[in-house]
Structures are given as structure tokens and as C-alpha cells.
Amino acid sequence: MRQLFPDVADDVDPLDVYCDVPVVDGRPSVRVNMISSVDGATAVTGVSGGLGGAADKRLFGVLRSLADMVLVAAGTMRTERYGPASLPIAVVTRSCQLDWQSPFFTEADARPVVVTVADAPEDNRAHAAEVADVVIAGTGSVDLPLALEVLGDRGARRLLAEGGPTLNGQLARADLVDELCLTVSPRLVSGDSKRIVAGEGLPTVTGLTLRSVCEDENFLFLRFRAAR
């Protein structure tokens, strides 16, 4: 991996580049990791795998190694076919309707977390509690600030949010995005794929400060910090 900014270096360890995880008072920090094509698509035929490569996968592993917990929307977990993980993964779901017999739950080394709402069907919440820790955050829709507060009380200080775009939009509207790690894939896709942040417009335009730029195998790795 070559670093292009802030300093030029022909061979850098991505762990050294990304180790300065943001720190936030009063709640876990949130680092969002996404990939998009050059023309802004976040998926090819519905999944992000067609955009990635070996370089992207290496950084994916590094970012997970620096997190206490992964935060992901239920739809992304299903679509991307998340398997069992050694790192706790918190799945955000309003309906609390998931495949509780999937290896993601039954074979995980670290017990998953299900973040849902108080009015999710009682049977669904009961099934979730059998295979995961259940966090109730809000009614009707998941209250993300409350969810982060609860996850912080459980010891999570560094969250890695892996999307999808709708969850990213909810985090951004709640002013909970502290850093954005964006991989720009050397692909042209076109189509109607979502942007990395989707949903209603933000109350105000969010300013970001560029922290680093790296390149590997024609992939660009951009890192932005929220300019609060």
C-alpha cells in the first residue's frame, strides 16, 4: 500500500495508517467503512462484493481488528451473507425478524447483538434472545443515540459501521459519524445503486476533514474525519 497523503510513502502498513481511531466523549466512536465504484455505485447486482479486491479485503480486516464491535443493518447482513465472526456484530433491525438458525448466530465465536425496538413482535425478540444479546432502543424505529449509549455501557468504545447506506444515513442524521473510510473501486457500474449515505437529506451539510489517502492495486483508500 502506498500512502499519498498526508505524507508520501511507497510502502506503509495499513494498521499504522488507520490505528488512530476517533475518540468521543460520552459514547462509542463510529467509524463508517464503505466501498463505491468511481461513479458512486455501492453494489453490483445487489451486493458490494463485485466492487472489491484483495487490497480492499486486507483493509477490511485491519479495520475490524481496530474495532470493539461491528454495527450493521439487518438487510446488509442478509444480502452480504455475513457468516459467524470472532468480533461481536450488532445487527440493527426494527422487525427483529432474522434467520436465527443461520451460522451467523449458531456458530459465532463472539455472541452477536440484536438492536431492535420495544414494539418488535414478542416472539421475534424471544427467538433473538436465545442466540444473541438483545438491546432495546426506542419504539417504532431504532433510536441510534440510545443504542450507542447502551452498547457503550456494555464496553464498546470503538464501533465499525459497515452499512448499508440507509443505516449510514440514519447515523449521519443523528450526527453519529465520526470517521468515514471510503474505498474507491476502479470500476464503472452505472445503474441505480444507492450512494454510500442514503435516505432523507441531512439537516445541515456535514463537513469532513481529509486524514489520509492511500493506493493499492488501483484502489483508492480515503479517510475523512468529521469536522466538528
Topology record:
Blueprint lengths: L1 E4 L8 H5 L10 E9 L16 H12 L3 E5 H6 L9 E4 L10 H4 L6 E4 L5 H10 L1 E4 L7 H10 L4 E4 L3 H9 L5 E7 L22 E9 L2 E8 L2
Parallel strand pairs: 2-7, 2-8, 3-4, 3-7, 4-5, 5-6
Antiparallel strand pairs: 1-9, 8-10, 9-10
Brief sketch in words of this structure:
By secondary structure, the chain is of the alpha/beta class. It has helices spanning 14-18, 54-65, 74-79, 103-106, 122-131, 144-153, 165-173; strands at 2-5, 29-37, 69-73, 89-92, 113-116, 133-136, 158-161, 179-185, 208-216, 219-226. The chain has two domains: 27-68 and 178-228, Dihydrofolate Reductase, subunit A (3-Layer(aba) Sandwich); 69-156, Dihydrofolate Reductase, subunit A.
What would your notes on this structure say?
With 228 residues, the protein is of the alpha/beta class. The radius of gyration is 17 Å and the shape is globular. The mean pLDDT is 95. The relative contact order is 0.22. β4 (89-92), α4 (103-106) and β5 (113-116) form a beta-alpha-beta unit. It has a ten-stranded mixed sheet, with helices on both faces. The chain has seven helices and ten strands. It folds into two domains: 27-68 and 178-228, 3-Layer(aba) Sandwich (Dihydrofolate Reductase, subunit A); 69-156, Dihydrofolate Reductase, subunit A.
Structural class: alpha/beta
**C-alpha geometry:** globular
Q: Major beta sheet, specifics?
A: 10 strands, mixed
The number of domains? 2
Q: Count the DSSP helices.
A: 7
Low-confidence stretches: none
Strand arrangement in the largest pleated sheet: 1-9-10-8-2-7-3-4-5-6
CATH topology of the largest domain: Dihydrofolate Reductase, subunit A
> Quick check: average pLDDT?
95
Radius of gyration: 17 Å
Instruction: Name the CATH superfamily classification of the largest domain.
Output: Dihydrofolate Reductase, subunit A
How many β-strands, per DSSP? 10
Q: What helical percentage do the residues reach?
A: 10-25%
What percentage of the residues does DSSP assign to strands (E)? 25-35%
What is the string of SSEs from the N terminus onward? Answer: EHEHEHEHEHEHEHEEE
CATH architecture of the largest domain: 3-Layer(aba) Sandwich
**N→C terminal distance:** 29 Å
Please give the oligomerization state of what you see: single chain
CATH class membership of the largest domain: Alpha Beta
